[in-house]
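Dear colleague,

As promised, here are the two records you asked about, laid out in our usual form so they can be pasted straight into your sheet.

NAME FIELD: protein one
SEQUENCE, THEN STRUCTURE:
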Amino acid sequence: MENRFYQSFDVERRGKPSPNQADDHRTPFQQDRDRIIHTGAFRRLQNKTQVFFSGEYDFYRTRLTHSIEVAQIGRGICQRLIAVSDQLDRDYFIDPDLVEACCLSHDLGHPPFGHTGESVIHRMMKPFGGFEGNAQTLRLLGNTAFGEVKGINPTRAMVDGVLKYKTLYSELDNPPNHFIYDDQKGWLDFVLADRPFPKEATPGKKRDAHKSIECQIMDWADDTAYSLNDIADGIQAGFLTIEKIEKWAGKQTLTDNESQLVDDLLENTIRRNRIESTIGYKIGQFIRHTEIQEQDHFLADLSNRYRYKLVVPQEIKEESKLYKKMAFEIVFRSQQMSQLDRKADVILTRLFEEFARFYIRETPGRREDHYKILSDDEEERIFADGLEQKDRARLVCDSVARMTDGVVRRNYKRLFEVDYGSIGDLVSG
């Protein structure tokens, strides 16, 4: 049955379709999803930090398990909306396959060592256009996902579904994050069909608020997953104990509702050891409270994806914010986590500096006598004729951001630790 919610505009691809695409039994959005799953970038998420460094224990979430959970929540929201909304129908609905594709890919561009890694690489890349995890996701989807030389040729709706930020790096004054790269303006124009933003949509938050309904669902699914699952991992890891939560709550100015939520977490979740069941219930609750409303939008005449906005009750949003605040202040700002973040900062900074010295500043070219610290394929791209310094920097950035936590550690040890370098070490990547 045809889904009238989407038109040819939504499924258009910026690049040429593959020769066998016309005979494909899958919908365009199923093709998007399947291509993502079969990329190396998706597989590498299994060894990238979500909260705790990957590989520490087998039950902590990684970027991969987080992405799978976000995808499940995103599909759940779609199913909820189809079932209860009087504005949708069996042949007019928000496509769960598209939302799943957006959710599975939303963290593809995030670097090793979580948010610390993102901050470090952005700091190193400021002279060359900055680094942002979501912008890097767009770079993968559009340019480098397959064989590091081409993207997955996503549909317009797919690109728009992961485009949380619609402001260029150069339009912001020394941005810490939340932007796309300047050379991605073509993708932004493609998504917007070359339409200008309304005058009131100034660069930054006001412009970034213009999200498609699929992007809004992905964003809420992401908020749901990490606000609740960070709490679960924090409890399992021993960071969120009854004593620490009570001490933290005693220093906060909490509303009656927030105090009740904290009490429920202590009494019904931790004391009764019902972590997984409680978190599962909460996820269901966050899904069940979603609705859609029709809105006026400057792109609504082009696509139904901008005809609607996702509505979540304020008290549910506040609950999510409470859990994020608790996890940040008790877990992420703890001495132990701060020490690990500092170590990650030192490792990534020194590693990037070494790559920059060889491939950005000195640019020795491909000579027999230069030290090769990146692969042949990476060097071939970096030393291509006609590249400017900022172009080489972006390619080095790609190489570092692509690395998993484990690959970063091994590269660091191989370059800087005297007693590391056996044959087993050398063949391990």
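NAME FIELD: protein two
SEQUENCE, THEN STRUCTURE:
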Amino acid sequence: MPVDLTDQFIKFLRDEGYLVTRQRRRIAEAIFTTPGHLSVEDIQSLLRQRKVSASIASIYRTLDVLIKSGLVVQHRFGKRFKRFESIRQDQHHDHLICTSCGKVIEFKNNSIETIQLRVAKEHDFVITSHKLDIYGRCSKCKNRA
């Protein structure tokens, strides 16, 4: 899947008239090959581990293009917690977000999905998309003051 996403990104760059640079490719690959929700700092750290140099500004600019391409989604989990993840066509999930440390836990729950469909039907409403973000404290932070 990551190779396909990288290929799709390169095609998008070419089709839209952007330069296909090594740095853009490496930033995209880092996101596409890493599961979960990444901060810009996480992305920069991954790039350093891979011996790729990229400034925070370059990462943000590439993220803007990745979001425009539809291959990366930006999540805002409160003011301090902006995260990015690659698209996963068939893997809908919801989030538990720790308001202390910013940890994001993905979960799936068929009962919640069923309830949402039932509520929509009761109100003669067609769901086109949805997201569920639940805020609280993770197991490590729950006992802190």
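A couple of things worth noting about protein two: The first helix runs from residue 2 to 16. The mean pLDDT is 87.

Best,
R.
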